[in-house]
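I am writing to request your help with a piece of structural work I have in hand. What I wish to show you is a protein chain and, alongside it, a tokenised description of its three-dimensional fold. Could you please explain, in whatever detail you think fit, how the structure tokens follow from the sequence? You will find the record immediately after this paragraph.
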Amino acid sequence: MMRGVCAGVLVFLCACQSRGESKDAPRPAALPALPWRAAAVAHGGVGSPPDRSDGCRKAVDVALATLAQGADPVDAAVAGVRVLEDDPRFNAGTGARLRLDGKTAQLDAAVMTSAGRFGAVAALENVRHPVQVARAVMDTPHLLLVGEGATAFARAMGEAPYDVTTDESRAKWQDLRRKLLAHDPSLPEGWRDFDYRRAWNFQAAAAEAGLDPEDAGTDTVGVAVRGADGRFGVALSTGGTSLTLRGRVGDVPILGAGLYAGPHGAVAATGTGERILEASLARRSYDRLAAGATAAATAKGAVDELRGKDIGVIVISARELAADADRPMAWAGREEGSGEYTGPAASP
């Protein structure tokens, strides 16, 4: 009998461990009573000039207006990100970075609700609003669609072919090409001595790109929304990086890396995708938030963890919103009913 009891206890303990539970695990912080004050916060990507925060304020306004019309917080976040995808100053949608071949751009996006629903796309091409496609994936049996299949799905969802490149993105690629050919020390460390010619996997030859293959493009745009009903939604979109082989996927479409949402709030990151991905940064930051850390402390803790790696974070909780970054970053946040914004150049 004792042996059976011990076995039962062991099974119970193993089950707790498999769920990440232990007697020493911190209890989630208490949430305030509903209704809450609706709010939204947006970022334009780490390294984006703070004077572009006007674009983030517009995204916040659209997100809150969408929420006020009765939309789910994740759809309000998507509406805000669409604004940033249409702003050619940001590396998402229109204005996305050209890759090494100097011709193509690769787009990733993701959305998540505080109930745990998730949808994402990666290596999407020629789509104006990748975040809208990610939202559509959330209504399928899948979590992530990639490459040509993702682009075909976008067409099925009504997204017409669209050239996301701009004169500015082409000029930035020309500058990057110059740096690569000169082995410029300002290039990211992993690319200074990397033999990209040997690894070349684009459809066009390196010689065609003039590469015989000031901006590596670590930007991402994101919006996080708090509903008065206690729900959260978060969305991210990126044009990726110029210094990338064909098919590279960063943190944005990976659950818990670039973004995460739960009952206690939402987190959205921006920066060097590989480092954010290694750290599961958004999920681990959310766990700190759920354990009782403030939004500001959560954002600062995330950046401190990877400081010097080009990292930015926005956080929204039941009571607060905050942002932090190790480089200048355009961002803005506002609560419903308030004309005052937080963030750089915060006056309306």
